[in-house]
Amino acid sequence: MSDTTREAAREQSPVPAAPARSRRVSAIFRRFVPPLLVTLGAIGLWELVLRLAVVPEYLLPTPSEIAADMKSDWPVLEPALLVTLREVLLGFAISVAAGVGLAVLLHLFSVVRRAVYPLLIGSQTVPIVVLAPVLVILFGYGTMPKLVIVALICFFPIVVNGIDGLRSVDSELISMMRTLDASRWAIFRRVEFPAALPSMFSGMRIAATFAAIGAVFGEWSGSNQGLGYVMLAATPNLLTARIFASIVLLTVIALALFGTVSLLERIFVPWAPRRNPMV
Amino acid sequence: MAGTAGTIAVELREVGKAFGEVVALRGIDLVVPRQSRVGIVGPSGGGKTTLLQIVAGLLDASTGVVRVEGATMARQRLVHCALMPQRDLLLPWRTALDNAAIALENRGVSRAEARARTRPLFERFGLASFENTRPARLSGGMRQRVSFLRTLMADKDVLLLDEPFGALDSITRAQLQQWLVHAMNAVPRTVLLVTHDVEEALLLSHRVVVLSERPGRVVCVLDTDHSAGGSRREIVTSPQFVSLKERALEALGS
Questions:
Q1: CB of B252 within 8 A of CB of B41?
Q2: Domain ranges within chain B, ordered by starting residue
Q3: What number of C-beta contacts closer than 8 Å exist between A and B?
Q4: pLDDT per residue rounded down to tens, chain A (279 residues)
Q5: Are strands B158-162 and B37-41 parallel, antiparallel or unpaired?
């Protein structure tokens, strides 16, 4: 069928082959150069202003002082980084499992949804700052209360986005599946769940940015290790550069988690429109 | 009555449908003989899609009786009907082949088996070499063909086509109309086709039913004769076709 090939040719070669490579290079350039320039500019400005104003290091360290501290304090920072990273990753994994599982459960059983939804929202109105010390009393100084806090903060955006994604499926798609002999389970598995994946990943990306904050909250409420503890211990000693070095490491953890989630989305949801500015 | 039951696939008696205050359909009588194609034309918003959904068993009629292959309950009608929706509604995460094969998978056939059974039809439908292409990379005409193939693979007695080519440009539309006639002649099924295009209905069907504006009711029934054959242009310009079209348009205007 010649009309078929013509139709296909019209739609399948929007970009000529030859300049595709250079176009890709320039696309990568456009994506990474502006944020890099802005970040470097901000760091440079910070350094310049503090040097001109001669601000003492214990009040506000310059980026170069923070970098120097990162190097000299590495024996303290490295184990703390690993502890916090572990809490963030485990807590996030728990929240994804719980969040997606709960979203599916609440979607499939409307009775459960009506019963549990108020409790779910209620759980988010409890200030974590107040809850954290109570959890320490409950679970002690170990990893457990940190995981609970990280999971508690992270699971909510995943559940809400997950339920929204599952419910927003085109009702005509479901009618179509019903005339094609689909059971409730087949509709869920073949239509609703894949359709909700982009939405679930959105929730996970939001959660990824909260996870590091959750871990620090947990460590502040009671612990003797982790980046949160390092910051807390450095404050009375006016080791301001060490605090900032810890903040930098926390940011790196959050960005890395965010990037990983975005990468997983590209792998598992290749059909989704590209709307994430980071990756 | 009992004698004709064997040859009638779809039968509607005094069927009406109201959504709250809004009456969508009123007193529809319709008979579709087995393996014949009946086209339903009517103005937009005249309840044509509602009528198909009632026949399919996706909706219940407010009044009257609907019988599809002997089944009157909505749930049982669903077993006999496959509906091809107005929009192609292909699943973007499935390849063209997996979209077409979904009805088989829904019935518990393994994915490999479903693919193997669907693949031979891709060539016949002019879709060869696009088996592993995702819908986003197919043209509108090809998506519509995959959608029709998906409906066909459900292997139902009755096919319900809701404005199958409504979203396409007129050239692709004309090509696909011709293609659909060939496809349906090759695999005879009972077909109920809804369209707002009189010419399309006359070209594709053995019988055309004209519906009024809302509340939709049957205004006139026209039987077409495709025995003369010929090219699309010859058919469309033949005096017989022109007079049928005139009558249909007149019925729509009244």
A1: yes
A2: 5-88+157-253
A3: 76
A4: 444 444 444 444 444 445 667 777 788 888 888 889 999 999 999 999 988 888 888 888 999 999 999 999 999 999 999 999 999 999 999 999 999 999 999 999 989 888 988 888 888 888 887 888 888 888 888 888 899 999 988 999 999 999 999 999 998 899 999 999 899 999 999 999 999 999 999 999 999 999 999 999 889 888 889 999 999 999 999 899 999 999 999 999 999 999 999 999 989 998 876 655 444
A5: unpaired
Please state which of the four CATH numbers 3.60.15.10, 3.10.120.10, 3.40.50.800, 3.40.50.300 is assigned to the domain occupying B5-88+157-253.
Answer: 3.40.50.300
Query: Can you read off the two tokens belonging to residue A194?
Result: 């894949």
State which amino acid sits at residue A140. Answer: G
The reply to whether residue B53 touches residue A175, judged by beta carbons under 8 angstroms, is yes
Structure ipTM over 0.95, yes or no: no
- Are residues A258 and A278 in contact, defined by beta-carbon separation less than 8 angstroms? yes
User: How many Cβ atoms sit within 10 Å of the Cβ of residue A110?
Assistant: 9
Q: Which residues of A lie inside 8 Å of B (Cβ-Cβ)?
A: 1, 3-4, 7-8, 10-12, 170, 172-173, 175-183, 186, 190-191, 194, 269, 271
Which residue, among B148, B187, B191, has the nearest Cα to B168 in the 3D structure?
B148
Strand B63-68, strand B81-84: pairing: unpaired
| 3-state SS string for chain A | CHHHHHHHHHHHCCCCCCCHHHHHHHHHHHHHHHHHHHHHHHHHHHHHHHHHHCCCCCCCCCHHHHHHHHHHCHHHHHHHHHHHHHHHHHHHHHHHHHHHHHHHHHHHCHHHHHHHHHHHHHHHHCCHHHHHHHHHHHHCCCCHHHHHHHHHHHHHHHHHHHHHHHHCCCHHHHHHHHHCCCCHHHHHHHHHHHHHHHHHHHHHHHHHHHHHHHHHHHHHHCCCCCHHHHHHHHCCCCCHHHHHHHHHHHHHHHHHHHHHHHHHHHHHCCCCCCCCCCC
What CA–CA distance (Å, rounded) separates B40 from B37?
Answer: 10
Q: What is the sign of the dihedral through the CA atoms of A59, A61, A65 and A66?
A: positive
Interchain CB distance below 8 Å, B141 and A7:
yes
Nearest CB partner across the interface for A3, out of B81, B151, B175: B175
Tell me how far apart the alpha carbons of residues B181 and B229 are, in angstroms, rounded to a whole number: 12
